[in-house]
């Protein structure tokens, strides 16, 4: 749907010499006449006497955004060739994907899934705990343990459940978790379900983490939890600092490598491998929904820990097992990842190229090998508007607004794969430059 309200088309915004902030603020003001993000999205409440569902009836944000033509979510993808997708009959370049190694349509992966589907059927119709464990699950667990040099692995139905189930069953009533403020929602869900206490230290701030470790030094059960690569900012966790503090204060370390696996380290083994800390990390959690191109998650640790989780994690015991085709496809994808390091090199080349392009045109971006490149805009309405203009220009990007990110820190979240061609990356950069200048986000 094209935007119904186009302030940038007004003559007052075509002056290339106008002040950047003035131009941007005028556009934001015009958008906010029609879209009150804070009151319509963040402050919905239950009115007295109207019952629990009144908060639903009072939720206006989606309708406001749709009327304005800037609603960015639930776009229907009709086909996908890796670097491009078709939405509403329109072919667009996707920079809204975590298919970092371009594996989702690899013929070997598809063939493995097809064979498993024919042999085992469409699903397991039960939990791993009772009737849902297939030989395929055990094979994949063995392959992951071998690849990551871990003693044992549990394959779960989603990456979300891998975090939630593991944390919830480990964090007892007298224990405490130390969690980075930018950790994934699945980590906070696990902490919320668990009976133990959780404190949130400032993002990647080792001094703040140590402050809390000192404060709770008398607690016996201490668990430091961090993403290895943070999904919104693309920052890399300071694992060397975390490991040192864990040793100093007798804490256990859990690392979620959801965006690290396949992206960094030898053959994509993750940030723990990149820092040569595999033996220092107690619990390695990962997902199959990014570099391995499917769905599911896993937790790797020593055998005593995994055996405990197998028999205690509700998110594992009380959910259906990962379907056969997904398991077989992931096993094949893992082999591709390990045997074709050229995919990782191409990913890093594409990442370096796109980041240099954004930096040269004036966008502030992270400076690392991670293919997550957030373009920070600030205002939520302006971010949604830019996202729609990008889509009209042939670029399908992600968007993150509060509460996923802090208020007034909204961003266009872009991410890249080894499948992107140079001409596609150039088209992305051209579109961002044109629209960034038009909206007063970057200078002429």
Give an overview in words.
With 444 residues, this protein is an alpha/beta fold. Among the domains are: 1-71, no CATH class; 107-339, Type I PLP-dependent aspartate aminotransferase-like (Major domain) (Aspartate Aminotransferase, domain 2, 3-Layer(aba) Sandwich). The chain has helices spanning 20-32, 37-42, 54-57, 61-68, 107-120, 135-148, 159-170, 185-193, 206-215, 239-249, 271-274, 303-312, 314-317, 324-339, 342-361, 380-392, 422-438; strands spanning 77-80, 84-87, 90-95, 152-156, 176-180, 197-201, 222-227, 252-256, 283-287, 297-301, 372-378, 395-400, 410-415. The strands form 2 sheets. It has a 7-stranded mixed sheet, with helices on both faces. Strands 1-2-3-12-13-11 form a 6-stranded mixed sheet. Helix 11 (271-274) links the parallel strand 8 (252-256) and strand 9. The protein starts with 19 loop residues before the first helix and ends in a 6-residue tail after the last helix.
Summarize this structure as a short list of keywords or feature phrases:
single chain, 444 residues, alpha/beta, Aspartate Aminotransferase, domain 2, seven-stranded mixed β-sheet, six-stranded mixed β-sheet, 42% helix
How is the topology of this model organized?
Layout (H helix, E strand, L loop, with lengths): L19 H13 L4 H6 L11 H4 L3 H8 L8 E4 L3 E4 L2 E6 L11 H14 L14 H14 L3 E5 L2 H12 L5 E5 L4 H9 L3 E5 L4 H10 L6 E6 L11 H11 L2 E5 L14 H4 L8 E5 L9 E5 L1 H10 L1 H4 L6 H16 L2 H20 L10 E7 L1 H13 L2 E6 L9 E6 L6 H17 L6
Parallel strand pairs: 3-12, 5-6, 5-7, 7-8, 8-9
Antiparallel strand pairs: 1-2, 2-3, 4-10, 9-10, 11-13, 12-13
Helix pairs in contact: 5-14, 6-14, 7-8, 9-10, 15-17
